[in-house]
Amino acid sequence: MSVSYTEVTNDNFASLLDPLLAAIAEADYIAFDSEFSGFCSKITKHMEQRYVELCQVIQTHSLFSFGLTLISRKNKTDKKNRTRFDVTNVEFLTSNQNTFQVDPKNMRFLAESGLDFGRIFRVGIPFHDGSLLDLTSYGDDPDHPTLLIRRFWFSVLKIVHDKKIPLVVHNGLLDVMYLYQSFFATLPAKLGTFVADLDLMFPGGFYDTKYLSTAVAGEQVSYLAYVYGKCLRLGQPLLKIKTKPSLAPADPTDAPASSFAVDLSGLLAPIPANPCRPTTTESASKKRRKRAAANTSNTQAKKTKLDICSQYASHGYCRLGNGCPMTHDMDRILDRDLGTTDSTTAKVQANDNDDLADPPMSSAKRLHSSHFDAYMTAYAFCYFITTLPEQDVQDALNKINLMRLDIPLRIMPSHYSSPSQSWQRLKSFLWP
Question: Could you tell me the pTM of the whole model?
Answer without folding.
Answer: 0.82
